Each structure stands twice: as C-alpha cells, then as structure tokens.
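User: Hey, my collaborator sent me this sequence without any context and asked if I could get a structure. I don't really work with proteins. Can you help?
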Amino acid sequence: MTALFFAGAAFAATMLGGAVALRLRDRLHLILGFSAGAVVAVAFFDLLPHAIELSAPHYSTSTVTAVVALGFLLYLLLDRLLLLGHAHAEPGHDHGEHVRGSLRAGSISLHSLLDGLGMGFAFQVSPAVGVVVGLAILAHDFSDGINTVNVIVRHGGDARTAWRWLLLDAIAPVVGVLATFLLTAEPDSLGILMALFCGFFLYIGAADLIPESHHAHPTFWTTFTTLLGALVLFLAVHFGG
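Assistant: No problem. I've predicted the 3D structure and written it out in structure-token form, which is a compact way to encode the shape of the chain:
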C-alpha cells in the first residue's frame, strides 16, 4: 500500500508541474530554460548513476555509457527523419512538428513508467529502500510535468494536447507500480533501459530545449534559468536519494 501512496503522490506532483507550465506560457522561454537544465540534470545526476549501479556487475561502465551514446544517436536519427519529413510538407503544415513533440513527450512518459517500475521493485526489496527511491522520484516528477508540457507547446501543440500528454505522463508511474505487483525484473536489465533513456534526455535537453530557450530571447536570463533548473534537480536528487 505504501508503494501505491507514492504512486499517487507522483501523479499529483507531475500534474502540478504541468499546470504551472501551462499557466506561465507567456514566460515560456524562461520555463524552457529551466526545463532544459532539469532534463540534462536528470540524465547526468539521476539516470546515469542509477544505470551504472543497477547494471553492475553484469555490464561494465563502458558498456553502460555506450548504451547512453546509442540512445542519444537513435534519438538524433528519429528526430532528423521527422525533420526531413516536415521539410517536405506543404507550407503551413505542422504535422511533422506535432509528431516531434509527441515523440519527446512519449520519451518522458516512458521514463516515468520506468520510474514507477523502479519504485515498485524497490519496495519488493524492502519498505525502507522503496521509500528512499520513492522520495527521489518525487523530487523530479514536478519537473517531469513541466517538461512534458514544454515539449508539446514548443512544437505547436495546444493546451488540450498538452493536458492529454500530461495526464499520460502522470499516470505512467502509477501503471509502473501496479505492474510490479505481477512482474519481477532483474536490476541489470532495468539499468540498461535507464542508460538508453539517459541518451534520449541528453538529446532533448542539449539539442532541442537549450537552443530554443534563448532563441530570440535575452540569453542571460534563459541561461540563468537553465543553470537554476540543473541546480534544483541536482539538489533534489542528492537529498532525495
């Protein structure tokens, strides 16, 4: 039951973060800057360390980092293919942009599903371990909600579309926890998946959110919010985990 409590708290934190992002859309460049720092920080300070830890001793650190690179390059390939498709679309046709936004939001939602799986499996180990993992996940779920809304709005989606993806992202950890009532998983397999998503997040943050946040906007404040986002997530992961 404790796992379900944390799953519900993760749902609430994600929805709250998304609601804040939607309300402050007129300050989108600043939120994008914060989101960029948060996404990169999640990759470096949360996903990568856990991927290395969970994959040992079956996979070496070099193997895990190679999977991170593979995730980055796979996402780059998908992104460029979608961009090429958009370039050949008719003027004013924004389907390609919407697909790119959905791809990014889907990656965040899948990461949230992995969060739920990790939390559920942690409670299988012991209640104490589950609580620690749950607190660490809650620490960045608020930013997950912000990031989900940002990538949809950034690629031309409206508020209704953003709410749908936000709801999916918020439900994902609940589904992950519920799935662990029926499943068991080897930690090393979960670690490799986390490494893959680390690569995805590095691409989303570095190649999309950071450049867009300061495009036609004052660089100082967007850079400040990016650094702030990274710092907040670092502190959240450090003190949460």
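In plain terms: Confidence is low (pLDDT under 50) at residues 85-93. You can pass these tokens on to your collaborator as they are.
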